[in-house]
């Protein structure tokens, strides 16, 4: 009996089920195809790709494209490979994620447990800030970064990502703490704990899941960003996405597709690993960012 | 109700002594930097860009007002109209196809599928990738020289042609293909969450009433997914209007300017064509487009949340 | 001077006045219960005593000291919350000791205090567990332990038993009463359950819509309600309130109650006659508690004025220890509480004995007590 199943009680016949499974598997192939294409072609000699065997498994397996993409491929003007840019991205992502997450947690705490007249307006303004098209801030941001002496630096990019990530991190923590029992905060107040004491001893120990969601969300967004990286970085602070695009779209010489695919996988790997390791939290973040915002 | 509403937070009573006064101010002190950042970097910048759109700024900002000249010039540009037309094509197809695929997959996955735990992450992983990676993969996969066209021809269909990415009439549809690939799994997840939230007993009741599976979905289940449709629409519309990275990586706006979108238009006019005033005007138009989608949505969400009580 | 004084306390949220000038004072060791329907302001009042809500105007004094401006942790109070508010990330022992830790009490002293309290509440075996591993009753005990360990001047309880099942609630009620008698600390206790109020309190304050309706001992509140609201709210089943006409008959003051299909029922008002003198010829609301209407043999032998009358029985509800019998008077259902072996049957006539010593009278317009 299907009665005990937690899923919908809809029941289907055998033929229908065969059709359903077929459709689902066909779609699985559709989603996996580009990943497959990138993977097999990143370990083929260029000639095999040019010969039109893009879907075939490599005949002569080689790691040379990976090596080239990582350390010798021409990016812009210098043949450095993607490795310096990979490091740029890491140096940018870690502080940007850490700072925006900490600030988001504190903001969420204040906006739920220490409301004051006008705090709703503050939250509404932060919420709306999540949705602006970044094109609207590009011109003044470039100018401010110049004035602050941060133009073309990784610190400048960190600042940009912190500022424009704040809305979402605050939203995540606010929604999470909104459901956190306020009586616990009152009890801690009577017990004599102060503002930071309550945060550190009472709320933070229960914040594990939302911290994971926020960190994953921010990590994915900052790592995958292209617009800010393209607009505000210089040759030696470019993040991975910008470097990859330079590699792929450079118009000089022979197109080394296998190197491009290897580079694309390198750029995708960190977020892909995060997704594989903690997909559940990744989806939760997507939903929270979408449905509640 | 006032009492219930006030339960939500703790009051900081007036205190005596400097330390206690500081404690009382701490929440505001903690919030202040973030708030200041948002005010300056979001709202201040919006005003700044808005102001620039009324000036004759070119390579650098300047503050000489020229009225609506930039807007007149903007809407006199065939390129801008092309960008808007492309956005309309891309946006509507992207939203419709993602919704159809997303809903279809969600319904299929909701049939107590063995292996759902394996399939779901496969449908969703593209969302974790950068649009630049997606663009790179599809750029070469759709390239007639090495991709689909060559592959199908190598199977013996020697007259097969698929060169949309090089065809200025069709290139915008390749952007749709890649974007749908990236986002439809996410839409599936939203619909699946909606489906899982529907009361099982109601479905059983409808079955006892004699509804076929088709009618069950058409009459009972899909109408209840309205909130999921709305969320999906808002998210997809928002993504479509902001789309920049994917076009850059996939076609770089080409061939020619065939896949120009407002976001690429804004960038090139501002930073490479030195027409900052026009670029600012196009950014303002983009903001208005997004606001007209988002603000009613947030307003409805907030109002709905209030009327449900706490 | 009283120990806990609440002096013309007002609370406003925006333009809504939630508490409209409350005056209550109790001596040290009192068990004050704030009771009323939800939304009456009782929890807000408790929060203001605790310092968790600001005071719009008026004053709260504990032991003669004004505490309006004091932070909750400095008022020497402890509070037990409705949800228990146990810190989920701490063990039971850490929960109980947290308040002491925040006050800088040394570790050894904290451990001794936790041991003492956990023994008193018989939760010693739970000390290493997390709140999520406890049953509802155990959480309740831990919440009380957290309050007790501080040995404060005043305990505040915010509906502490409302999340327990019926049997456990009765047990914990008894336990709270025993703890109070043993320690003698002043308690302020909020509940919407009038039985809890009656059984626990030394003083009850009945609130409605932010106004203090009546303040007194449980017996005063129960036997001498000042208005229809208090009469109706306290007691279960609640007091019968029947429209009646005051009349003078043969030199005696009586109340007449309409009945459908038969002659009206007249009841001698006995000792209340004098107070009702001004009401002759007017409508009143007669209030009689179910236990003051019995079968003829079950009537209180010490009562001075008992009126016997035959009435039509609508419904009979045996409840084991008693039998509740419903009749209709003055267009209202009237419940009588008869002995379980009383010979009454539905749809027949039976003799009812009205103990008019216990009757009270209200003005139907103002709903205030007239006699």
UniProtKB/TrEMBL annotation, chain A:
Compartments reported by the entry: Cell membrane
InterPro entries from the UniProt entry: MetI-like (IPR000515), MetI-like_sf (IPR035906)
GO cellular component assignments: plasma membrane
Domain ABC transmembrane type-1: 86-278
Superkingdom, taxonomy of origin: Bacteria
SUPFAM superfamilies (UniProt xref): MetI-like (SSF161098)
Pfam families, A to Z: BPD_transp_1 (PF00528)
Main location, first listed in the record: membrane
TM segment ranges: 18-39, 85-109, 121-145, 157-177, 198-219, 257-277
Topology term for the membrane: Multi-pass membrane protein
Alphabetical GO biological process terms: transmembrane transport
Protein keywords: Membrane, Transmembrane, Transmembrane helix, Transport
Family, per entry: Belongs to the binding-protein-dependent transport system permease family.
Name of the protein in question: Glucose/mannose transport system permease protein
Lineage per the UniProt record: Bacteria, Pseudomonadati, Pseudomonadota, Alphaproteobacteria, Hyphomicrobiales
UniProtKB/TrEMBL annotation, chain B:
Locations listed in the record: Cell membrane
Record field: transmembrane: 29-54, 87-110, 122-141, 170-195, 228-250, 276-300
Protein origin, superkingdom: Bacteria
A biological process term (GO) from this entry: transmembrane transport
Main location: membrane
Family, as annotated: Belongs to the binding-protein-dependent transport system permease family.
Protein name per Swiss-Prot or TrEMBL: Glucose/mannose transport system permease protein
Keyword Iron-sulfur in annotation: no
Source organism (scientific name): Prosthecomicrobium pneumaticum
Entry's Gene Ontology cellular component terms: plasma membrane
Automatic annotation (TrEMBL), chain C:
Domain of life: Bacteria
Stored InterPro entries: AAA+_ATPase, ABC_transporter-like_ATP-bd, ABC_transporter-like_CS, ABC_transpr_MalK-like, ABC_transpr_MalK/UgpC-like, Mo/tungstate-bd_C_term_dom, NA-bd_OB-fold, OB_MalK-like
Membrane topology type: Peripheral membrane protein
One GO molecular-function entry: ABC-type transporter activity
Main localization, broad class: membrane
GO biological process, one term: carbohydrate transport
UniProtKB keywords: ATP-binding, Nucleotide-binding, Sugar transport, Transport
ABC transporter domain segment(s): 4-234
Gene3D superfamilies found in the cross-reference section: 2.40.50.100, Nucleic acid-binding proteins, P-loop containing nucleotide triphosphate hydrolases
PROSITE patterns, A to Z: ABC_TRANSPORTER_1, ABC_TRANSPORTER_2
GO CC list: ATP-binding cassette (ABC) transporter complex, substrate-binding subunit-containing
Compartment list: Cell inner membrane
Family: Belongs to the ABC transporter superfamily.
PANTHER family (alphabetical): ABC TRANSPORTER ATP-BINDING PROTEIN, MALTODEXTRIN IMPORT ATP-BINDING PROTEIN MSMX
The protein, known as: Multiple sugar transport system ATP-binding protein
